[in-house]
Amino acid sequence: MAQITLQNLAHSYLPNPGKDADFALKQMDHVWQDGGAYALLGSSGCGKTTLLNIISGLLRPSQGRVLFGDRDVTDAPTAARNIAQVFQFPVVYDTMTVRDNLAFPLRNRGMDPTYIAARVQQIAQMIGMEDTLSRKAQGLTADAKQKISLGRGMVREDVNAILFDEPLTVIDPHMKWELRTQLKKLHRDFGHTMIYVTHDQTEALTFADKVVVMYDGRVVQMGTPEELFETPAHTFVGYFIGSPGMNLLEAKIDGSRAHLQGQSVALGASYAPLAGCTQIGIRPEYATLTRGDGLPVRIKRVEDVGRHRLIRAEVLGQPLSIVAPEGQEIGADLTHVAFAPDRINVYADDWRVQGGTA
């Protein structure tokens, strides 16, 4: 296992990059702790797979260094980094049995046959394939083949890190929950450094201790699921995390109040004068319909999603989502919306601004 350090790292697929937009991966400096479980989260094209390929050695960065512990591995090939990888699409040997596929990485390293048999049995139990160990991989479903690939990536206990590149894409929804639970257990039991690439926020938030959110080739926030939800460092994080995402409303910030078209909202902190495009962000869970307090609101529709109802509304010409608890009456007399002041985040040019004492 190893601490992974990214120093002054950046990458461009162009031969002579000259400006920020030329870089698929913008300059970054990060330390990922030994034994941590990390998720790289972002939409397609944000740079997460590029970053994973640099860490794995499949791609050399245009600038900067990658360190495993104190060892510079920037120019080291994948085979010399002592990592395990699981890719989006299954990579298995069709002519081998499931047992032999799982045992392959261990046999390649000359491990003791007794240990191999026990470890393969343990991994097979984890991925739910004990009954198919003697069956050849050929003819198995893509779902089953990906479970083999996942198991083979996790069978070694001596790796520096295990890298997962959207490994559950072809797995059925029920099995996704099972395997995510098993991955968390494996991490607790053996303490591997794990990096998991996904565009699915549920996968990221349930798997990782720390989620690394990427946007436009840049890491915009690294934090716990709670930090990403409560204090998004960038408007993209607020929008991308949560279902629905954070409400963002254009507003002028003046000390401890936000002004929206002649209306005023109390903030939980005080802010110095801000330049640029300023907005307030409020989670739908912290917005409440009222009979007169707060901002005037127009309800457009109500969606019943089980434990709560989702209200799609409009406030001062801007769209707003509100989560109403189960059982709350939603009548025509609820004409305003109030925000919990201490749950309001303030943004200037998309980045969160830290406030002072109100």
Automatic annotation (TrEMBL):
A Gene Ontology molecular function term of the record = ABC-type ferric iron transporter activity
User: Does the record bear Transmembrane in its keywords?
Assistant: no
Q: Which family does it belong to?
A: Belongs to the ABC transporter superfamily.
Please state what the protein is called: ABC transporter ATP-binding protein
Would you tell me the Gene Ontology cellular component terms? ATP-binding cassette (ABC) transporter complex, substrate-binding subunit-containing
Any matching Pfam family: ABC_tran
Tell me the PANTHER family matching this sequence: ABC TRANSPORTER ATP-BINDING PROTEIN (PTHR43875:SF14), MALTODEXTRIN IMPORT ATP-BINDING PROTEIN MSMX (PTHR43875)
- Which residues are in the ABC transporter domain? 4-241
- InterPro entries with a match to the protein in the record: AAA+_ATPase, ABC_transporter-like_ATP-bd, ABC_transpr_FbpC, ABC_transpr_MalK/UgpC-like, Mo/tungstate-bd_C_term_dom, NA-bd_OB-fold, P-loop_NTPase
Q: Which SUPFAM superfamilies does this UniProt record tie to the protein?
A: MOP-like, P-loop containing nucleoside triphosphate hydrolases
Key words, A-Z: ATP-binding, Cell membrane, Membrane, Nucleotide-binding, Transport
